[in-house]
């Protein structure tokens, strides 16, 4: 690895990945990804069995966001350190999922692939619905760029979708094995109504603000996923969900840049790309 390769990271400022992951729609898409991931019984069991998220989901959400930011905007050395840390944790965890009877390890390649594809599908689809200017070629390029992220975390290169068409075919093939288990419903409730300190709930706008963001994330799921949860869209049509995401993006873009981007994103831009444009 040359110093220049390290400085640019695994994607760099000319990538579609930077465009998608810098956009405010990332917040809605991240929650959508969690809701979609929960529909895989074995992957969901791994989260439920080996995570303290039910008691305090905020640290896990923060760690997940920081990992994706570091992989996207960090140097290659920083990204590889983050990958090694996560793979070290995964290596120690596993269990048996009751509804399928499958014994698994959290780092089984097919489970890692599922998590990856849910993230890529969510980030791309929500960005496009939110109005991020992405051509079909850009979308294919984004999916192809993200193969690197999947392989780094332990997925098998030849099995990772590298185009929008391949990603759609992957979900078509997976749907018969998906189910909204009790653990998935519990995870959805946690996303939609996370625990908050009493003073935060009643003395700040945090709960209604989060509720709106989470409901929007749920409403952007594919129809088949919403049907599996037996919640078609929380009262939002597809058109209303798209309008909501566009409104959220516009409102967020109006905020000062320091309020809407993490220090990791800022550091990446300052290192290789100069000031961030809106």
Output the number of helix runs. 17
Low-confidence stretches: 199-206
Query: Approximately how much beta-strand content do the residues carry?
Result: under 5%
Name the helicity range: 55-70%
Mean pLDDT: 87
Q: What is the CA-CA span between the terminal residues? A: 32 Å
Computed over alpha carbons, the radius of gyration is: 18 Å
Outline, from the CA principal axes?
Answer: globular
Whole-number count of domains = 1
- SSE pattern, N- to C-terminal: HHHHHHEEHHHHHHHHHHH
What profile does the largest beta sheet have?
2 strands, antiparallel
Given the helix and strand composition, which structural class is it?
mainly alpha
Please provide a written account of the structure.
With about 280 residues, the chain is mainly alpha-helical. Helix content is about 65%, strand content about 0%. Strands 1-2 form a two-stranded antiparallel ribbon. The longest helix has 22 residues, at about 110-130.
């Amino acid at each position: 690895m040359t110093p220049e390769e390290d400085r640019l990271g695994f994607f760099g400022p000319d990538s579609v990945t930077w465009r998608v992951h810098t956009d405010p729609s990332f917040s809605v898409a991240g929650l959508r990804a969690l809701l979609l991931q929960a529909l895989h019984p074995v992957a969901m069991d791994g989260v439920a069995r080996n995570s303290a998220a039910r008691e305090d989901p905020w640290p896990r959400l923060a760690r997940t966001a920081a990992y994706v930011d570091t992989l996207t905007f960090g140097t290659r050395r920083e990204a590889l350190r983050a990958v090694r840390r996560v793979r070290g944790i995964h290596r120690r965890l596993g269990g048996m999922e009751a509804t399928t009877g499958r014994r698994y390890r959290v780092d089984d390649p097919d489970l890692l692939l599922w998590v990856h594809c849910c993230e890529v599908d969510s980030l791309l689809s929500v960005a496009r619905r939110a109005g991020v200017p992405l051509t079909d070629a850009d979308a294919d390029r984004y999916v192809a760029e993200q193969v690197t992220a999947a392989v780094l975390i332990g997925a098998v290169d030849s099995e990772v979708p590298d185009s929008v068409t391949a990603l759609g075919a992957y979900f078509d093939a997976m749907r018969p094995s998906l189910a909204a288990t009790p653990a998935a419903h519990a995870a959805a409730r946690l996303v939609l109504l996370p625990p908050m300190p009493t003073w935060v709930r009643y003395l700040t706008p945090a709960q209604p603000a989060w509720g709106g963001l989470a409901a929007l994330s749920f409403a952007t799921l594919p129809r088949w996923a919403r049907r599996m949860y037996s919640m078609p869209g929380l009262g939002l049509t597809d058109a209303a969900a798209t309008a909501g995401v566009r409104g959220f993006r516009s409102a967020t873009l109006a905020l000062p840049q320091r309020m809407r981007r993490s220090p990791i994103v800022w550091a990446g831009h300052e290192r290789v790309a100069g000031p961030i444009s809106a």
